[in-house]
Amino acid sequence: MALSPWFQSPLAHLSLVEMQERVFFYASVPSYIFGTISVLALIFVIGQRPSLWKPRHIFQALSLFNSLIGIFFGIYGFVFLMERLGYLEPMHTGFFYFFIFHRYLLLSGDMIPSVDRCLAVVWPLKYYTHATTSLALVICILSILAACGLTILAWSLGVIPSYLGQMTYPQFYLLVNSQFVLMLSLPYLSLALVVLICDTRALVIAIGRRRRMSKEIGTTSSFLTTTTSSHHHKREGPASGCGGGGGGRPEEQKIFLDRQPTFEFSNDQSSELEHDHAKRLDRNMIEIKITIRCLATTMWFFISQMCTFLPGIILFGCDDKKDTTDEELEEFEMVEEQCQWILTFWIRIFIFCFYQFQFMKPVFFLAMDKDLRKGLKTLILGDKHQKFAKSKKMIII
């Protein structure tokens, strides 16, 4: 029984591969437009509003910046996909270093927010003592400089082979290049293991802390109400025994009561005490919910990069020329023949889905962060809408 073209040699069905790539391109156009506009809008909101100058939001801005680069220079970015489909002229191999820069920056951009939330959960006191806006900005700048330095190192080592530009789908063959795998894919696996262990531990701690906090919120209100109301009544003798019957002589009860400290709370004071405590618990609960969402989202984005690195690791060594003396043209044909399985539909669809998630990253950040939603709403509707919402809330109260 003959295999379906979807499972046969990709080189034997390049027309089918091209048709699939065109479908991917037209499916990506809405995400290109939406991703570019929403990423620029969120970065502007974070930079404009001082209330969002927190390490968490600054690291989110770095991650969004990485996604913006990927919209243009990712494997399924606008520029490279247009070039593969013939809408743009074949590019010089030097442009592939933009892709390598994007991959290095994406590693740090998805790892740093994840580690940030992990540290905030595991060591909260140290984190909130040392984590400042200036430190977050320094970390972002250093990560960008590190990506630039590693890209220059890759250029000096000649990671991009000279024959790559002559291939039909060069970006995919770069994923299986031995030097690319050694410089990016294998380091990613080690970092992914560290992030997975750290974030899993932090998620367990955060979920347990949320459960305890939920119980405390449920019991605090009734406890404060009971405790405060007991001080408004005239102090009477303590009920003896477990059932509350009489016990002890009246003289002893009087001496006992006279020696107790007196705590007098007015109705306003007790209400304010209860309100402040509940408000602190609510703030902490909101923060822990955001932390759990951030941890889950950033861990997902970082682990999902495996879609682009794992195929190269599996096919590692397929570009081995075995000291061939063939001409350059025959060399790239040999590499295409040996590494053609990187063009398999199922590998490309996984990579395509990964980039779609990256392009739609602003949606995930907006869904998990109320402050970002408020900032974006203010940017779109203006300050008048915010003032109207506050006045409406006061009227309702």
UniProtKB/TrEMBL annotation:
The chain crosses the membrane at residues 23-46, 58-82, 94-113, 134-160, 180-207, 290-316, 345-367. Keywords: Cell membrane, G-protein coupled receptor, Glycoprotein, Membrane, Receptor, Transducer, Transmembrane, Transmembrane helix. It comes from the Eukaryota. It is found in: Cell membrane. One of its GO terms (molecular function) is G protein-coupled receptor activity. The lineage of its organism: Eukaryota, Metazoa, Ecdysozoa, Arthropoda, Crustacea. The keyword Membrane applies. This is G-protein coupled receptors family 1 profile domain-containing protein. The keyword Zinc does not apply. It is a multi-pass membrane protein. Gene3D superfamilies: Rhodopsin 7-helix transmembrane proteins. Its main location: membrane. GO terms for cellular component: plasma membrane. Residues 224-248 are annotated as: Disordered.
